[in-house]
Every structure is written in structure tokens, then in C-alpha cells.
């Protein structure tokens, strides 16, 4: 996501803020690009170094223990999920998510993404906050983007208050890109959760888990497929994999995208790719991009 707006435009807006005496706001804006980059790289780095990271003594561990003393429910749910490996009721998960988000407000983003924020659980080695966040449906990238949204909103308000309508407009456009990205990612992840038997088509390393990195690749493939579909809707180059009325899997080849849209107007029960070589992508995601 950072690549979409961490561009010369961002630096231009930062320069405009500095010119108006808002040096702190300029630095905050540039830091947002770094945070999103950290969120993109953090998940894959953690997956490669999870064993080493768990052994790190965190300078935030003492504070985490203090904060967790006020969030007993989160500790209980974390123990149930990660130690006992038992299912947790949706209502309990929701409360635990809220408590974890409150806790993370006191922790620097860099500490979370570097893997140095640990949560001590009785009877176990300290648990990485990102690991618990993943189990609670709050992956580091999603959390980072919610923080970025909040700060961008503050900067938009600040620019308007200081009489900088053009700067406010450009910051608002950045905010819309982040929101769009967040919504798009959430819909794809929800689709994967609701269709677990199709997750293998997006699982690049075949470890039965869709990482942030793999989700990012899937999102890029969806955008590429949408671009190709709109460029030549009559090219019969598409293959569709779908569930029939009897929930049996079927494949149709050599379709144009115009035929695909007519035959699969909803798109949620089908995957699509160009020919027989590209990666499969959810058809509904392409439909949403094309409108």
C-alpha cells in the first residue's frame, strides 16, 4: 500500500506544510509512509524469524504486564487461543479485540512490527503481539492502516484550520486511497475465510495460511486482471472455476469477459484467470473494481 502514495506527491505536500510553518505535521506525514512500509514487510519478516523473535527481551514487556493487569479478559482469551488452542465465542473475541487495540495505543508501531512487544502469559513463553493480533483478526498491517487513517484525518483538519485547502485536498485523496485499500483487503480476507476450501489457490507457499504478503500479491493480481478485462472485454482468454447448482466444481474455458459478466453476475461463487497459466483470483473482486 505504501507504494501507492509514498511518492513525490507526499514529499511535495510535506514541503508545503513546512513552508507554512507546520514542520511537525510534515514529519508526521512522512512517518506515515514509513509505517505502511513497515506493515507490508513486518508480517513476512515475522513469519521467517518467529523463533528468534520470541526469545527477544522486550523493553516494553514490563509496561505490557502492567497494562494487561487491567485487561484480564484479553489474557484469558489469549491463553485459550494460543496455549489451550480452544475455540472462543464471537462475543469474547470482540471484547478481546477491543482490549488489545486499547493496549496497542500505548506501544510504538515500530516495536510491534520489529517483534519486540511481548505479552507474558502464565505457563508459556511471552507471546508476540502480532501473533495474538492475527488470531483476533487484527493483523499488523490492518492495525497500521487504521492508525494511518486516524493521523491523516488529523492532518486534513489541521490543514483546513490553517487555511491550506489545496494541501487538505491532497491529504484527503491520500486518506481515500488508504481507506480504499483497507476495505479492499478486508473484503478479500473475509472472502477467504468464508471459502476456506479455495484458499489453496492463493496460498503461495502451501502452508495453509494466507500471509499479509500473499494477500498483497492477490490484491495486485486482481487489479491486473481487472485492467486486462476492461482493456479487451471480448478477448476469449478467460477460464472460470465455479460451483454448480449441486455444489460440484466446474470449469469453463475460452470465455470473453463480457460472457463472464453475463454468466456470473454475482461473481462470489467463482474464481477466474487468464488461460490456464495465471493465478486464480476471486471473480467478485474484479467485478467490484470494474463497478
- Structural classification: alpha+beta
Number of structurally distinct domains:
2
Overall geometry: flat
Find the count of extended strands (DSSP E, 2+ residues). 6
Kindly, what is the distance between the CA atoms of the first and last residues, rounded to a whole number of angstroms? 21 Å
> Which percent band covers the strand fraction?
5-15%
Order of helices and strands: HHHHHHHEEHHHHEEHEEH
Describe the overall structure.
The protein has 291 residues and is α+β, with helices and mostly antiparallel strands. The protein folds into two domains: 2-144, no CATH class; 212-290, no CATH class. Helices cover 63% and strands 8% of the residues. The strands form two sheets. A four-stranded antiparallel β-sheet has the order 4-3-5-6. The protein has a two-stranded antiparallel sheet with strand order 1-2. A hairpin with a 5-residue loop joins strand 3 and strand 4. Helix 2 (8-19) packs across helix 3 and helix 3 packs antiparallel against helix 9. The longest helix is centred in the first third of the chain and has 32 residues, at 23-54. It is flat.
Amino acid at each position: 500500500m505504501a507504494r501507492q502514495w509514498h511518492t513525490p506527491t507526499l514529499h511535495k505536500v510535506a514541503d508545503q506544510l513546512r513552508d507554512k510553518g507546520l514542520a511537525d505535521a510534515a514529519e508526521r506525514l512522512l512517518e506515515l509512509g514509513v509505517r505502511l512500509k513497515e506493515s507490508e514487510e513486518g508480517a513476512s519478516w515475522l513469519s521467517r524469524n518467529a523463533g528468534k523473535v520470541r526469545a527477544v527481551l522486550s523493553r516494553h514487556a514490563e509496561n505490557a504486564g502492567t497494562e494487561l493487569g487491567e485487561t484480564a479478559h484479553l489474557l484469558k482469551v489469549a491463553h485459550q487461543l494460543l496455549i489451550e488452542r480452544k475455540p472462543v465465542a464471537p462475543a469474547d473475541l470482540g471484547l478481546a479485540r477491543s482490549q488489545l487495540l486499547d493496549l496497542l495505543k500505548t506501544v510504538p508501531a515500530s516495536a510491534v512490527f520489529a517483534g519486540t512487544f511481548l505479552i507474558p502469559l502464565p505457563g508459556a513463553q511471552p507471546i508476540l503481539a502480532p501473533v495474538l493480533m492475527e488470531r483476533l483478526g487484527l493483523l499488523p498491517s490492518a492495525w497500521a492502516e487504521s492508525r494511518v487513517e486516524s493521523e491523516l484525518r488529523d492532518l486534513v483538519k489541521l490543514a483546513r484550520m490553517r487555511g491550506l485547502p489545496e494541501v487538505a485536498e491532497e491529504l484527503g485523496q491520500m486518506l481515500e486511497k488508504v481507506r480504499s485499500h483497507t476495505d479492499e483487503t478486508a473484503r478479500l480476507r473475509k472472502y477467504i475465510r468464508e471459502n476456506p476450501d479455495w484458499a489453496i489457490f492463493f496460498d503461495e507457499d502451501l502452508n495453509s495460511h494466507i500471509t499479509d504478503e500473499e494477500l498483497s500479491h492477490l490484491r495486485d493480481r486482481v487489479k491486473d486482471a481487472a485492467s486486462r478485462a476492461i482493456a479487451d472485454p471480448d478477448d476469449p482468454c478467460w477460464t472460470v472455476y465455479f460451483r454448480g447448482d449441486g455444489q460440484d466444481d466446474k470449469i469453463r474455458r475460452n470465455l470473453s469477459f463480457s460472457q463472464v459478466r453475463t454468466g456470473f453476475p454475482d461473481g462470489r461463487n467463482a474464481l477466474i484467470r487468464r488461460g490456464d497459466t495465471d493465478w486464480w483470483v476471486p471473480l467478485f473482486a474484479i467485478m467490484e473494481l470494474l463497478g
